[in-house]
TrEMBL record:
Record Pfam families: DUF2207_C
Organism: Nocardia speluncae
Superkingdom of source: Bacteria
InterPro entries xref list: YciQ-like_C
Positions of transmembrane segments: 223-243, 384-403, 409-428
Name of the protein: DUF2207 domain-containing protein
Signal peptide: 1-28
Coiled-coil region: none
Domain Predicted membrane protein YciQ-like C-terminal positions: 268-486
UniProtKB keywords: Membrane, Signal, Transmembrane, Transmembrane helix
């Protein structure tokens, strides 16, 4: 409806100001008091064009104030604008802040102005309503109103004190569609309540009303849809992350010992290497994984490790790197013994810059990606780029919506979606389905090695089984337990004194001294591969 009342919709404040806020400084002493003549036209643009003639008796002053910002509820307000002000005679009219003020001295003054933002719609019709309470005595009011439609009907016209009104005696609409209102001797405190109905779409709707539903950050239908989609997407993403991270195959203890033809050999599932197993377990290539690879290279006869006193060791080239080595193993081998180098001490390796530590880590991770165990890092960065793009897009949508169309919380929902992607990126699985299967096998191998007892193995095979299993136990920090399990074996039972890959204890008939010495060696090797 087109309503001229602050709480309803349209011209209430504009027209109420015309009838209710007059405050002359002295009351007329005879019927020839303040006389108002109002000619009003409601244009198709929804602008109320007013010509107001005020006649003030000698010795009196007239003041009218029309508020341009009107609080219509606790959290809503109506805004008007008055433009195109013209004045003739002794009166003045101006807009100052949120007030439109007319002042007139004795004599006749004419004011012309336009009231903007006066029209709003309702279902099925538009309603034009005047309502207000007179603050002063008015001798006479003569008003006319013309709208674009002659199909204007009087719904109600009431006069008198609020709660005790009477029907207007002199209000009519002529056949040509012009409304006439003539009233005399209106007293302070009386109200004027006029409601007219015109066909829907007669004038443009331009009311400027702000409230809880009009804020650009209000909760609207599009906002609810956006947040519903955000909630669904977040739940889906969280569900996927939980599902994917639980897809690692259940760890069944794997049997690391193969018995055949009276011999016992060590076997890792799917040919998994110690360094590779360490990367699969935690998704990182750390110093323990590299140190385990060094020991594995010695166990497989590419290196020989010799003791020099109690706290120093050397590594000697035994066999050159060949096609049996994986790329990351070759990188570790070449880092220890570059071309032309036959041996190196652990002290030499500790020199700053001697070892390309970050390059070795990168090579180990790249090897896992190339084998299909890990997702390519470039693919894992897609959520990072997408999350950043959503944050930028959401910020732009928020600003544009706040300035133009409302629904600014849609942009906030997009920003939250981007932030959620950035936060979720670190929890997205790094392993492929194949990688998760391998990880399950690594854990099964870990459990299987924990169950090995040296008594299960023929005396002549114990040294080799011990040596092949040791690098894996280094990876999951159980080397001490592994050495303790085998410390009573005789390393010369294979007719070769001492451990074949670690020198310094050739005369021993057990591994007791080696068990006390080895932790210092592995700690020193891990130390040289620590990032500096």
């Amino acid at each position: 409806m087109l309503t001229f009342r602050g709480g309803a919709a349209a011209l209430l404040v504009a027209l109420t100001g015309l009838f209710t806020l007059f405050t002359p400084t002295a009351r007329a002493q005879d019927p020839a008091g303040v006389i108002l003549n109002l000619d009003m036209t409601l244009s198709r643009e929804g602008v109320l064009e007013v010509t107001e003639r005020v006649t003030v008796p000698p010795g009196e002053q007239f003041t009218m104030s029309l508020p341009l910002r009107v609080q219509i509820s606790e959290d809503s307000e109506r805004r008007f604008a008055v433009t195109d002000i013209e004045t003739t005679g002794p009166g003045t009219a101006q807009v100052a802040g949120d007030l439109f003020t007319i002042e007139a001295g004795p004599g006749e003054s004419t004011f012309r102005y336009s009231v903007q933002n006066t029209v709003s719609d309702a279902e099925g019709s538009q309603v034009f309503r005047w309502f207000g309470v007179l603050n002063v005595d008015i001798a006479e009011i003569h008003a006319t109103l013309i709208s674009p439609s002659f199909e204007m009907g009087i719904v109600e016209c009431l006069l008198g004190p609020i709660g005790s009104t009477r029907p207007c005696a002199q209000v009519r609409i002529e056949p040509d569609g012009v409304l006439y209102l003539d009233q005399t001797n209106l007293r302070k405190g009386e109200s004027v309540d006029l409601t007219l109905q015109i066909p829907p779409g007669t004038v443009a709707s331009n009311a400027d009303i702000s409230g809880p539903g009009d804020s650009p950050f209000a909760i609207t239908g599009p906002v609810l849809v956006a947040f519903a989609l955000l909630l669904a997407a977040s739940a889906g993403l969280a569900g996927y992350i939980v599902w994917a991270r639980r897809q690692t195959a259940a760890a069944e203890p794997a049997q690391p010992l193969v018995h055949a033809e009276g011999r016992t050999q060590f076997s890792s599932p799917a040919g998994l290497l110690p360094g590779e197993a360490g990367v699969l377990l935690d998704g990182h290539a750390d110093t323990t994984d590299i140190a385990a690879t060094v020991v594995d290279l010695a166990v497989r006869n590419y290196l020989w490790i010799g003791r020099i006193g109690e706290t120093q060791w050397r590594m000697i080239r035994v066999n050159p790197a060949d096609e049996q080595l994986r790329p990351y193993e070759r990188a570790v081998y070449d880092a220890l013994l570059p071309a032309g180098t036959h041996e190196v001490t652990v002290a030499d390796l500790s020199a700053p810059g001697r070892l390309p530590i970050e390059s070795l880590r990168h090579t180990m991770l790249t090897d896992a990606v190339e084998r299909g165990a890990f997702i390519d890092p470039s693919r894992r960065r897609i959520p990072l780029w997408l999350g950043g793009a959503l944050i930028v897009l959401g910020a732009g949508v928020t600003v544009a919506a706040a300035l133009l169309s409302g629904h600014a919380l849609v942009g906030i929902a997009i920003v939250i979606a981007g932030a959620a992607l950035l936060a979720a990126q670190r929890f997205l699985p790094a392993r492929t389905a194949y990688g998760r299967s391998l990880t399950g096998q690594v854990r099964g191998l870990q459990q299987g090695l924990e169950q090995v007892n040296s008594a299960q193995i023929p005396a002549g095979d114990r040294e080799l089984v011990f040596s092949r299993g040791l690098p894996y136990m280094i990876v999951w920090s159980r080397a001490d337990n592994w050495v303790r399990t085998f410390r009573d074996i005789d390393p010369s039972a294979d007719d070769d004194p001492g451990l074949y890959w670690f020198g310094g204890f050739e005369g021993d008939r057990d591994l007791h001294r080696f068990a006390g010495h080895f932790p210092y060696f592995i700690t020193a090797v891990e130390g040289v591969f620590s990032a500096r």
